[in-house]
């Protein structure tokens, strides 16, 4: 029984191509942003401005222990495992643990031979965690639970959570392996509250990425915040000194919304109506009246009939920064299909993910604008909602997830 | 409003890399088995011995019309759309249909700019279909509903179906787009009964593919039937003349089983016990007592203690052709994670897919062997089961899915 790391297993398996589309497609000696490792430590957590990977496994945990020390130890253990897995290694040894032949393996094995696949693991803490463990005074004002919005049809069992971990990777098996092993390590301390798989990222977070499409068939996230815009990121994405408690400086607030799309209803509406509702063309993705995807939205032009070319209730108008006091977020959502709904329809939609400096001036006002007037509401249902405080990145090997939150004077 | 095909949209979008890991990874002018198109017509349906793609969207439909002609028309419409989509084109025009400006688009748009991604669409007909539309006398004896097996915990709403379509592709957005558009085209004639997404194929169907791993972390499908073994395929996979009704000659019978894996329980068991239960090592995947993955299973050797090295209840022993009168199937299953189960656990497992010449001498006896004795049963639950007759491939443009079944003297 030989202890295997993913790298040594990779060597044993030769090309080690199992399950990886990218590796099957080409072999290159150059660094490959699709399969290579993303740095785990740094000023900010990876998985936020990191060029959006293609696959998602998101999990929200309930903390089931009352023992603060056990929770802190888990955060240390998770950090160590995350540092390994994001670098393409196992969560722990596959072989029997030294001296304890009856111990289960410290890694579950399904990612043996797979590359790092640009895996990022991003942690956040939910408002409910701050009601326990003596953390009450540490809760940022920006982490107040989200208000109810018009039309919300939330399923409480799919909402909130004490701790969230977002796993993004270019191979779903790598993202699933990471979350599954973190859940395994957390046994007895945390319990999976809800979990979501996603594919087909619906936003670009880097100017090097083409704009992908959501399940309404439209390009999504054309005007997203991008990694290459440091001034905008400072203003809209990263928590700045003085914004709130120090432990969040350099961090960001994460809002997730699982948005069921009634695709069957949408698919019955005429193209012209779809384009009116979105405010962009379906093919090119250009704003109504414009020629190119990246042209500015034209709010004011009127047609021959004297009506505005861009409908007053068009989604791009209602969601635009100019309509929301300049509010911007970094979105990195994913499409999902969770089987069918028992009523003859696919259970499909968008798992919306947005990072921001302060939800009180970003997600909340924008969603108020959308939930009241957006014509899209006829075709969507918000079924899950959550908010998490994602601390800054780890400074080095002695740092761990939540250290500055839990270890204070 | 311009009518766009996926190819023309691709040209407009330049590199058109949205959502495709493989395309981001490399650009090559050579044919690429990961992104290129698989032929839609041929002696057998594609998607069976086609090298297993990385992603799955499987759907089972109920037929909700009583009108035989409407059903046949749908099969013709589906065939036309499938022929287009498998070649990297849209299901129909994206733009307004000529002369009917209020018509919805004939394609939903989310795959614009994506390559064919080796999409295959494979159709099968379930036993329940043969109770209607005058098809009673056309039902093959091999298509009798599956028996109950020891330990089955099936959810009837996830079982069976009149018509199944398996979409496999190397991009999940392409597979989802195909099923979603077929469901759209079928509105009013069929209704989605159940649907399943999968990732990380758990079997190789070609000798050129490495053996992937299931969510127990073990290599799965090492001894699968392979495309390069025509004699074995004739004997075990393809329905032969005289086996039953002519319309199935050259076809194959498809068994699907959704197998929930209790991964949290499995992850607590020692490596030695996991390897005993499977009968292979976890790292290399070699049969117990052997050195290499592809070594023959050693049924007879005993250890120093006089006990068989390969446990009497090891999975590889119980599932082996030598234990089941030579029974073999072509497996092309996928891993799945469907969120969490409300009890703090991931809802994860294997969506088992197996094609065979006759389930009465293949899946049924093998599953009887496994369901009675396999130690794995402690860690798995069969929650969905279905059987479909998949006819042979289409002969050309005038042929359509089900033609030989529905159009007879």
Q: Kindly report the greatest chain-chain contact and the residue count on each side.
A: A-B, 100 and 99 residues
Strand content of chain A: 15-25%
> Over all CA atoms, what is the radius of gyration of chain A?
22 Å
Structural class of chain A: alpha+beta
Q: Count structural domains of chain A.
A: 1
Q: What profile does the largest beta sheet of chain A have?
A: 9 strands, antiparallel
Uncertain regions of chain A: pLDDT < 50 for 5+ in a row? 1-5, 7-28
Determine the mean pLDDT of chain A: 90
Number of helices of chain A: 10
Distance between the termini of chain A: 47 Å
Assign an overall shape of chain A.
globular
Q: Considering DSSP H and I runs of 4 or more, what fraction of the residues of chain A is helical?
A: 10-25%
The protein's oligomeric status is homodimer
**Succession of helices and strands of chain A:** HHEHEEHEHEHHHEEEHEH
Number of distinct beta strands of chain A: 9
Overview of the structural elements:
Two copies of one chain form a homodimer. With 409 residues, chain A is an alpha+beta fold. Chain A has one domain. Helix content of chain A is 21%, strand content 18%. In chain A, strands 1, 2, 3, 4, 5, 6, 7, 8 and 9 form a nine-stranded antiparallel sheet that branches. In chain A, β7 (334-340) and β8 (346-356) form a beta hairpin. In chain A, α3 (68-86) runs antiparallel to α4 (172-185). Chain A starts with 5 loop residues before the first helix and ends with a helix. Residues 1-5 and 7-28 of chain A have low confidence and may be disordered. Chains A and B meet through α2, β1, α4, β4 and α7 of A and α2, β1, α4, β4 and α7 of B. Chains A, B: It catalyses: heme b + 2 H(+) = protoporphyrin IX + Fe(2+). Chains A, B: It is found in: Cell envelope. Chains A, B: Involved in the recovery of exogenous heme iron. Extracts iron from heme while preserving the protoporphyrin ring intact. Chains A, B: Its cofactor is heme b. Chains A, B: This is Deferrochelatase.
